Amino acid sequence: MLIASQLEPTYARRVYPCFDEPAMKATFNIRIVHDPSYVALSNMPAIDVSEMKDENGSLWAVTTFNTSLKMSTYLTAFVICDFDYITRTERGNEIRIWAQKEAVKNGYLDYALNITGQIFSFLEDLLNVSYPLPKTDLVALPDFGAGAMENWGLVTFQESSLMYLPSHKFTCRKAMIAIIVSHELGHQWFGNLVTMNWWNDLWLNEGLASYFEYLGAIFVEPKLSLDKIFYDHVVQPVLREDNEIGFRSLSEREDKINGSYSLMSLFDSITYNKGASITWMLSGFLTEKLFIRALTSYLKGFSFSNANQDDLWTHIQMVIDAEDEVRLPASVKQIMDSWTCQNGFPVLTLNLTTGTISQEQFLNKKSKSNTDSYNNTWIIPISWMRNGSSQPLMWLDKSSKVFPEMQVSELEYDWILLNVNLSGYYRVNYDQLNLKRLARLLENDPKAIPAVSRFQLIDDVFALAQFGYVQIETALELTKYLAREDELFIWNMVLLHLLPEDLESTLKNYEVYPLLKKYLLKRMSPIYNYYAVLIRQNVDALEDDYFAQVYLEKLFATACWLGLQDCLNLSSELYTRWMENPEYNIPFLIRRTVCCYSVAVGNDKEWNFAWQMYNHNESTKEDKDMLLFAMSCAKESWLIYRYLQYGLSHTLFSSNCTSVIIHYVITKDTGHRIAWEFVTENWPLLSERYGKELLHDVLRLMERFVNTDVQIQELQVFYNTTLEEDERVAATQLLESARSENMERRNLLTKLANWLQKNVDD
Question: Which of 340, 319, 324, 300 is nearest to 207 (CA)?
Answer without folding.
Answer: 340
